[in-house]
Design the sequence.
């Protein structure tokens, strides 16, 4: 009695590796098309800046902890005063002090590792050990 793939539940021995190989190659091709995370971040940052330009002057309200409404106004972040505010407050205070300063440490370490990797220092250290 011969067993068919539907009888044994295992499938053809030649068919499964082909599916795994093709799905892994598809995943690899998709992964190679994804840009660097820094490029993604910069693109989203520019998108937010453009959204602030198009929504500038609009107002919305949110409830406060006491139950009363707080009215907020959207500002154009490409105006000179707001660009200064971004560099004076948003970049330093938001990024470097987020999580009690841990994000600033992580960003600096990641930059150092990236520079060491691109310069070949990490490869030289691994080969030397």
Sequence:
């Amino acid at each position: 009695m011969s067993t068919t793939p539907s009888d044994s539940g295992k499938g053809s021995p030649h068919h499964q590796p082909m599916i795994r190989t093709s799905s892994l190659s598809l995943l690899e091709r998709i992964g190679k098309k994804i840009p660097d995370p820094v490029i993604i971040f910069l693109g989203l940052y520019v998108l937010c800046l453009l959204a602030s330009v198009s929504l500038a002057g609009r107002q919305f309200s949110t409830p406060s902890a006491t139950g009363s409404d707080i009215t907020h106004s959207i500002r154009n972040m490409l105006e000179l005063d707001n660009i200064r505010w971004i560099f004076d407050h948003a970049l330093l205070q938001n990024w470097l002090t987020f999580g009690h300063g841990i994000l600033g440490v992580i960003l600096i370490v990641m930059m150092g590792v990236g520079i060491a990797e691109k310069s070949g220092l990490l490869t030289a250290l691994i080969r030397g050990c």
Remarks:
- Residues 63 and 69 are 4 Å apart (CA to CA).
- The longest strand covers residues 59-63.
